[in-house]
Every structure is written in structure tokens, then in C-alpha cells.
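Reply to dn_fold:

You asked what the input looked like. This is it:
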Amino acid sequence: MLPRRKPLRVKSATQAEREWAQVTCVSGVCLRCGNLGRVHPHHIIPRRYRAFRTDRRNGIPLCFTCHVGGPKSAHGSPLDFRKWLWDALPGKMETLHAECPEAMLRKGMD
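and this is what came back:
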């Protein structure tokens, strides 16, 4: 059984966004590296696309290093991370790309 974690607090978020974050991170496991413990919710389609901001399909749990802290992190190297997403979650990426093509979700972002 996983250790009990503190509730995730997201600054200046709506109730729907807080619920989205909780659901996204419920596993407590980083999807990229498998680390257990505190994970952060990461939007696949950027938050600026409001229609997808709280869509449960649009989130993955990432540890700090994979989210923002490392050179190959989602925010540190977005193109490399996008390619990894396509390799790791091809079905999910196809679905999200079909519903929001303007978000530039193509594998190579060409």
C-alpha cells in the first residue's frame, strides 16, 4: 500500500482544476520514470486551451524531475518530451491531437 500523501494544492486554481489534479495524480507513480511518491499533474494539451484544461484524458502524473527539474523534463525539453509521449501513449496522443489539432501535438511538431 502506498503511503498517505498530503492533498495536492494548486495555487489560484478552480475547484475543477484541483479535482483534475487529484485524479491525474491518484496513482502516486511518475508515468515517465516510475518513481513513487509526490507527483505533479502535467497537461498534455497546454492549459491555455481552456476546453481541455480539466479534461481527465489531458493529464499525466510526473515526478518533479520529469516535470520541471531535469534537462529532459516536460518543461525543460518540450520537443523531446512530446516525442516520448507519442512513443509511450500513441493512442492517447492520437485522440487528443484529433480533438485539438491547433495544440501542435504532432510527434515532430513540424
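Residues 1-5 have pLDDT under 50 and may be disordered.
Hope that clears it up.
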